[in-house]
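REQUEST FORM: STRUCTURE PREDICTION
Request ID: SP-0412
Submitted by: Lab K.M.
Chain count: 1
Length (residues): 128
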Amino acid sequence: MTLTILIIEDNAANLELMRYLLAAAGHTVLTAGDGQAGLDLALEAVPDVILCDLQMPVMDGYTFAARFREVAALAATPLIAVTASAMQGDRQRVLAAGFDGYLTKPLEPETFGAEVLAFYVQQRARPP
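STATUS: Completed
RESULT:
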């Protein structure tokens, strides 16, 4: 299964690692360096999955999630936070903010692509 995946990440090294791993797994990868650019691209491309950092300039991940959830055309698109925030309560805060899932950095290169694909499949299997 090939997906179109939008990665919204301001750290160039993290962005390139995710892009490389997902492209190597056969997915089409779109990238944006901040939440506003990511929202603009999501509206234009309507990707299958969006991976979004939380700490970014211009528009952070929490603001992105709030604005993203207001767009009916994107309502079915799974939104996954990819963050270094792994303290107690962070997962609940992220999910409460409108994200569908949560992956922590540092990423595990061996399993990252499979985790994203499994999450997509799991989200699509949920009843509306």
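NOTES: The chain has one domain: 4-125.
Reviewed by: T.R.
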